[in-house]
Each structure stands twice: as structure tokens, then as C-alpha cells.
């Protein structure tokens, strides 16, 4: 499997697949995927691929029926490659960690869009129990949840552009602080292992590697 960051074309292809197979329950784009994977790598316990791959689509009922096996394998390979790249940056090169925020063009100007990334992060948080997070770090999680939960949107309506920029700037250090805290705990998640190389195809009667618990022939083979 390839290592390192995904290219712009690879990220665009992931976006296209998320749009092609997504639903109202799934994540919407690579920005939200980036946020989800960041939280999965930063929480109090190991989140297996069988959990986050299903959460990505919004539950077992929404796992896509891929057009072909090659398309499915490439999607999974790129997801794992991107996840490994995020893990390397969080753990070893924090100065190189940057959330993959979106960009919206309005009247010829580009504006940063953080909501999708933050929604993805909070979706990842929901996969674990973060209730033991110390009170001193709650503001860090709140900095992300401010943009990642619709119930908090009224708080943003009256902010000036300068105040909004300050809120945006708080997200990156918040994500790093949360990762550093959980990874330092005795039961913290271990360093991510190399994912299964998807070129090694399972047999038709083997368990599907998406984690659904079904046989491959009854799941992602189709």
C-alpha cells in the first residue's frame, strides 16, 4: 500500500465516491472524512475499521453496493492511506497537521468552511466514551463542537469576521491537545497498525473485510 499524503486527484476521487454512494446518513465529503478519522485516531480507545467504516456510511443499512470490486478496493486503500498520514502527523509531526477544511467561493473570494470537518470529528467522538475528558480540556472539545453540532450554530450568528477567524484558528490546536491527552493515558489507543492489503482478496465465503460480519459474497463482493 502507498504511504504519504493523498494527491489532489485522489482526494477528489474520494469526494466523488462519497457523493455517488452517500446518503443523508453518511458523511458528505473528504473534509468530513478527515475530521472523522482524526477523532478516531485521537480518542480513548481503539476504533476498529469495522466500526468507523460502517459509521462513515451512517450505519449498516447504508453500506453501499459498489459498482465493482476494483472501485471498492481503491476507496478502502485511499481511506487507510489517508488515515495513516493523519496518524503520522498527529503523533510525530504535529507541526504538519492541518485539518482538511473545505473552501467556498463567494463573489470571487475564497472562504474557509470548517463545519464539515467538525461534524466529522464529532461523529468520531460519538464512537467512544469521552466522558472522562478532564474539565481543563473541555474547552478544546467545545471549540470543535461549536462548529460540529447544529445546536451550537446560534452562538455563531452574532460573531464578527474577526471573532469567527479566532474560532477557526482554535480548532487545530484543540485537535492536537485532545490527541496528546488521550494518547498519553494508560489505556490509550496503540500506534495504528498497517491495514490489511486489499490486493489480498478474501474468498467468497470468508468474512467481509468491511467489518459487517457477513460473508464476502453476501456483502462487498457485490
UniProtKB/TrEMBL annotation:
Taxonomy, superkingdom: Bacteria
* A Pfam cross-reference name: UPF0149
> Which InterPro entries would you find in this protein's record?
SEC_C_motif, YgfB-like, YgfB-like_sf
Q: Which PANTHER family match?
A: METAL-BINDING PROTEIN, UPF0225 PROTEIN SCO1677
Q: What is this protein called?
A: YecA family protein
Species the sequence originates in: Pantoea alhagi
What does the organism's lineage look like at the top?
Bacteria, Pseudomonadati, Pseudomonadota, Gammaproteobacteria, Enterobacterales
Amino acid at each position: 500500500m502507498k504511504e504519504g499524503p493523498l494527491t489532489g486527484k485522489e482526494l477528489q476521487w474520494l469526494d466523488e465516491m462519497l457523493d455517488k454512494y452517500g446518503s443523508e446518513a453518511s458523511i458528505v465529503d473528504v473534509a468530513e472524512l478527515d475530521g472523522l478519522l482524526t477523532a478516531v485516531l485521537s480518542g480513548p480507545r481503539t476504533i476498529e475499521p469495522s466500526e468507523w467504516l460502517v459509521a462513515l456510511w451512517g450505519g449498516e443499512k447504508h453500506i453501499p453496493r459498489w459498482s465493482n470490486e476494483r472501485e471498492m478496493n481503491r476507496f478502502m486503500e485511499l481511506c487507510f492511506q489517508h488515515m495513516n498520514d493523519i496518524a503520522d502527523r498527529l503523533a510525530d509531526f504535529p507541526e504538519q497537521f492541518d485539518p482538511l477544511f473545505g473552501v467556498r467561493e463567494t463573489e470571487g473570494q475564497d472562504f474557509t468552511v470548517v463545519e464539515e470537518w467538525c461534524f466529522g470529528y464529532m461523529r468520531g467522538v460519538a464512537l467512544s466514551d469521552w466522558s472522562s475528558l478532564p474539565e481543563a480540556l473541555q474547552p478544546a472539545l467545545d471549540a470543535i463542537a461549536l462548529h460540529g453540532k447544529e445546536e451550537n450554530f446560534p452562538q455563531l450568528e452574532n460573531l464578527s469576521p474577526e471573532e469567527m477567524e479566532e474560532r477557526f484558528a482554535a480548532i487545530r490546536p484543540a485537535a492536537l491537545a485532545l490527541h496528546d491527552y488521550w494518547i498519553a493515558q494508560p489505556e490509550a489507543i496503540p500506534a495504528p497498525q498497517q491495514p490489511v492489503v486489499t490486493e489480498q482478496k478474501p474468498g467468497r465465503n470468508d468474512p467481509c473485510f468491511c467489518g459487517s460480519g457477513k460473508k464476502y459474497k453476501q456483502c462487498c463482493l457485490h
